[in-house]
Write a structure and sequence with these properties.
This protein has no helices and 11 strands. By secondary structure, it is an all-beta fold. The chain is globular, with a radius of gyration of 13 Å. The termini are far apart. The mean pLDDT is 97.
Length: 115
Amino acid sequence: QVQLVESGGGLVQAGGSLELSCTASDTIFEVSTMNWYRQAPGKSRELVAHITAAGDTDYADSVKGRFTIFRKNGKKTLYLTMNMLKPEDTAVYYCNLRWLHDNVWGQGTQVTVSS
């Protein structure tokens, strides 16, 4: 089964920026819909951003205008650029791959935004 490996999380001050990446182990990545989710302590996992195989994107209202999702199929890598970060963006961020019956999750990467 395809595996996803995330990187790029860390600690940043409010107003700062981070870029997350998620690399897939298989070229199935190229035909898959990819998502970024996040889960804050005590809260349910929520969809942050979404990109189809064709490159169409959508965002949660809370991150529109601040976050950008994009993909580089040649590198089998998904990205999430996060600008103007807020303390409420603090969470574990997960990438997710969907294709036919496949629904694969990365291990998660912690993002902490200090006020």
